[in-house]
Amino acid sequence: MNICVFLSAADLDERYTRPAREFGELLGKAGHTLVWGGSDTGLMKVVADGVHAAGGRLLGVSVEFLANKARPGADEMIIAADLAERKKLLLEKADAVVIMVGGTGTLDEATEILELKKHGRTEKPVVLLNTAGFYDGLAEQFRRMEEEGFLPRPLAELIFVAEEPAGALAHLEERLAAH
Fold first, then answer.
1. Rounded CA gap, 49 and 25, in Å?
2. What angle (nearest 5°) sits at the alpha carbon of residue 30, between those of residues 28 and 32?
3. Are the C-beta atoms of residues 31 and 6 closer than 8 Å to each other?
4. Neighbours of 92 (CB within 10 A)
């Protein structure tokens, strides 16, 4: 399975790096491919290191203005012209998506896949990995959107919230096995 992970390229502390490394190791041990932004910095590097160390495959999609930060030695590295093309390629290459901790770029990627799902343009499973409660506020906002009629589909059809890496991967494997 090709699992796209949206996450930060920032260097962060252990409460964020530990779950990223753990998710990468789980993904690699299960024989899956990591599809990610291709960066060799921050959490992007941590998750890729975990996948690589556990024998998984790395498929990166970088962007021209960040190509100097692309991970050397990835199994496949695509360089997109711009961020819009990068997002399109990441989603095309993925069977499923995991949203990990990140900033505005991660949030942009997350809302794009959810918008596509909302309109029935994709049915790929999406998991929000709520590491250390990072996305508590966003999860609450999503619930409010559903309760107040802003979502044309039930929230449970759009996204699954997992608190730990093992739960995130188990949900994806279960969903994809059912199809």
1. 8
2. 60
3. no
4. 12
Residue-wise pLDDT tens digits, 10-53: 999 999 999 999 999 999 999 999 999 999 999 999 999 999 99
Q: For the whole model, what pTM was predicted?
A: 0.95
Diameter of the chain measured on Cα atoms: 47
How far apart, in whole angstroms, are the C-alpha atoms of residue 52 and residue 173?
20
The label of the residue with tokens 């449970």 reads 156
Conformational region of residue 149, where left means phi above 0, alpha means psi within -120 to 50, and beta covers everything else: left
Closest residue by Cα to residue 121 from 145, 150, 99, 92? 92
Alpha-carbon span 157 to 138, nearest angstrom: 17
